[in-house]
TrEMBL record:
Binds 2 Zn(2+) ions per subunit. GO terms for molecular function: dihydroorotase activity. It comes from Nocardioides mangrovi. Residues 47-234 form the Dihydroorotase catalytic domain. The keyword Zinc applies. The gene is pyrC. Zn(2+) 2 binds at residues 150, 177, 230. It is an enzyme of class 3 (hydrolase). This is Dihydroorotase.
Amino acid sequence: MSTSYLIKNVSVLGGEPTDLLLKDGVIADGADASADGAEVIDATGLIALPGLVDLHTHLREPGREDAETVETGTQAAAKGGYTAVHAMANTEPVADTAGVVEQVWRLGREAGYCDVFPVGAVTVGLQGERLAELGAMADSAARVRVFSDDGKCVSDAVLMRRALEYVKAFDGVVAQHAQEPRLTEGAQMNEGELSGRLGLAGWPAVAEEAIIARDVLLAEHVGSRLHVCHVSTAGSVELIRWAKGKAAKDKTWSVTAEACPHHLLLTDELAATYDPIYKVNPPLRSAADVEALKAGLADGTIDIVATDHAPHPHEDKDCEWAAAAFGMLGLETALSIVQQTMVDTGLLDWAGVAERMSAAPARIGRVSDQHGRPVAVGEPANVVLYDPAATRVVDPAESASLSRNTPYRGMELPGRVVATFLRGTATVLDGKLQ
Ligand SMILES: NC(=O)N[C@@H](CC(=O)O)C(=O)O
Ligand SMILES: [Zn+2]
Ligand SMILES: [Zn+2]
C-alpha cells in the first residue's frame, strides 16, 4: 500500500491555513477520518502550489548523457517543484520520429520523478528543410502536442506555415525559437553599446522581433496555435500584446509566450565578465528589457515562465566566451527567481505564480487533464510545498543535474522547495530527493 500524507496547516496559494490529505494519488479533505495512518507533515508557514509544469526543458537524452539524462534532469525538476516537463527535441538523434519521442517518454516513466512530455521536432533533424513526421509523433504513445526546432529557428516561412497548418489536425502548437538566422550570424551577446565595447558580435532585438511578427501573421492567416519560446526583448512583449488583442477578437488562432527566469533577473552587463556562464540564447538583454518582461508577465501578455534548463558539461562552458555553448541550468532555481523578481516585488501573488508556472503551461501543452489543476479535493495529488521565508546560497555541487552551469552560483536566493508530490508519491521530502 502506498504512503498517504496528511499535510497540516498549509496555506494553499497563500490563503488561510488548512489540512490536506494526499491519498491514493488524489487530494482528499484533511479532516477525513481516513487520514488515520497517514504520514503527518507539519506545513506551518509553507505554501502549497500545484506541481509546476515546464514547457521548455533540455534533458539531453538521447545523445548527450554526459550533460544530462532523463533521470538526472527529472530529479532536478522534482527538486525545483516540477511534476511535469516538456523535453525539447534537440537531442542526438533529434526527436523527429515516433520512435525517439516514445523512447524519451518511456525513460521518463521509468525514472518516475516527474512526467516527461516529449516535444517533437518541426523539421527533420532540425535542418529546416522538410517537415518531420508530426502526425506519427502526435499519434504515438507519447501523444506529442508541442512541436519545436528549439535551438534553431524555423526560419523558412513556407515550412512554418505548413507546420502551423499541420498541427491543427491534433490541436498541436508550434513553439518557435524566434531568431532570424542572417541577422544573428556569429552572434555572441545582446547587440548594443556594450557588445561593441567588449568586441563580441551582437544579437540584435530585431532578429527576435522580426520572426515573432511574421509568425503571428502566419498563425492568424492559417488559424493555428503559435507559442513563442524565451521572449527576451521589450519589443517582443509589445508585439505579443498587439497580437493577443487581435486574436481575442477572432478565436480561430492564438499566440502564447514564455519568459525564462534568467531573463527576468540578469542583464547583458554580466557579459563584461567574459564568463560564459552568462552566455545564453537568446542573450541576456538590457535592464529596460527585463522590466518590460516583468510587466508583460504580470499583465498576462507573457503567459508563462519556462526554464529553458540547458545543461552543458564543463568542457563546453569552461572556455573562452566565443567558443562556449549557449545555455544555463534553470529547473532548481526557477521558483526562487520568480519569487524574487515577481512576488517579493508585488507584481504577482501566489495564485498568479500557480497560473504562470503550472496551469497555463499545462493548458498550452495540452496536459491539463493531469497537471496544472487546482490544489483542491478530488484533484490529482501533484503538489509542491514551498517555504517562501527560507533563503539559501546556490551551490552548484548540490544540484541533481549532471551539469554545473548555473549563473546563480554563490547568490543568496529566497525560498526553498520542501516537498514535491507526483500523484501522491513524494519525489522530494524535506528538500531531499526520495
Ligand atoms: N537556450 C540556450 O542557450 N541553449 C539551448 C537551446 C535553446 O534553447 O535555444 C540548448 O539546447 O543548449
Ligand atoms: Zn531556444
Ligand atoms: Zn531551449
